[in-house]
UniProtKB/TrEMBL annotation:
Entry's family note: Belongs to the binding-protein-dependent transport system permease family.
Key word Transmembrane present: yes
Pfam family, one: BPD_transp_1
Chain ranges of the ABC transmembrane type-1 domain: 68-250
Full protein name: ABC-type nitrate/sulfonate/bicarbonate transport system permease component
PANTHER family listed in its UniProt record: ABC TRANSPORTER PERMEASE PROTEIN MJ0413-RELATED, ALKANE SULFONATE ABC TRANSPORTER-RELATED, MEMBRANE SUBUNIT
Membrane topology: Multi-pass membrane protein
Membrane-spanning ranges: 12-30, 75-96, 108-126, 132-154, 231-252
């Protein structure tokens, strides 16, 4: 990798470390400065002891790791489905404004309804405890921000480049493939970054309301049984992994756009 490519990676790493430090500081402040009971509230030191330094740390990690893996699998499902549907809809809307005018109001109406209120209907249709319910709930969280971002990127294509394709006899699909889609890469990566925490949120919601598995399903159990160490540790794990995934997407984005000379021009 060239020196030019390492520079955006370094920026992403610095941003990740800064974000992590801010999260830890806020966590410490909430636990120690709000008067919460130490029996309920666990700070970074207590979670570190529980997961890393304590005598039972290995057993605690073994208990929480399958929950984390399950949640990440559910989040990946929602992310892939949501991003895929958003990409297809964005391209379709860009090719046909008639379709956009007919479908977009329905999408905005669905977006305006709180997901928690329609989740029972989704679960009733797809079945409780099924992966279909996880896919639908997770993809809804991802879909709308990704759709707006990708559609915005497709609409920002260079008019001169589009005219050049048409002059040489290219069709609208050719212009979409050679001009619109490559030019929308910054918006596509921005949609992916936003969708990573959205997919995790959707997975936790689906696990809480439908499957009862993963971290989302276990948080309620931990609270009911006063297992507050497990509760705070599971929240810390999913938060850290989400931050890592977000910054991983940012690193890939910076490298790809830097190699394509799009960093300065479109970001």
């Amino acid at each position: 990798m060239s020196a030019v490519s390492w520079r955006p990676v370094g920026r992403a790493v610095v941003n990740a470390l800064l974000t992590f430090a801010i999260v830890l500081s806020l966590w410490w402040a909430v636990v120690n400065l709000t008067g919460m009971s130490p029996y309920v509230a666990k700070g970074p030191a207590q979670v570190w002891e529980f997961l890393v330094a304590g005598e039972d740390a290995a057993a605690n990690r073994a208990d929480l790791t399958p929950l984390l893996v399950r949640t990440l699998q559910d989040a990946a499902l929602g992310f892939v489905v949501g991003m895929g549907v958003a990409g297809v809809l964005a391209v379709t809307f860009s090719l046909s404004r008639t379709v956009e005018a007919g479908v977009m109001p329905l999408a905005l109406l669905l977006r305006a309804i709180p997901l928690v209120s329609i989740a029972p209907v989704i679960i009733l249709i797809t079945g409780r405890g099924t992966q279909a319910s996880v896919a639908v709930i997770g993809s809804i969280v991802v879909l709308f921000p990704a759709l707006a971002s990708i559609l915005f990127g497709l609409d920002r294509a260079s008019g001169q480049s589009l005219d050049l394709v048409h002059v040489y006899g290219g069709t609208r699909l050719t212009a979409m493939r050679k001009v619109n889609v490559p030019g929308a890469l910054p918006s596509l990566f921005a949609a992916a970054r936003v969708s990573v925490p959205g997919a995790v949120t959707g997975a936790l919601l689906a696990e809480w309301l439908s499957t009862g598995t993963g971290i989302g399903g276990s948080i309620v159990k931990f609270t009911a049984s006063a297992r507050f160490d497990d509760l705070w540790a599971s929240v810390a794990l999913i938060t850290i992994v989400t931050l890592l995934l977000y910054n991983l997407v940012q690193v890939i984005e910076n490298v790809v756009l830097s190699r394509m000379a799009m960093t300065t021009a479109q970001r």
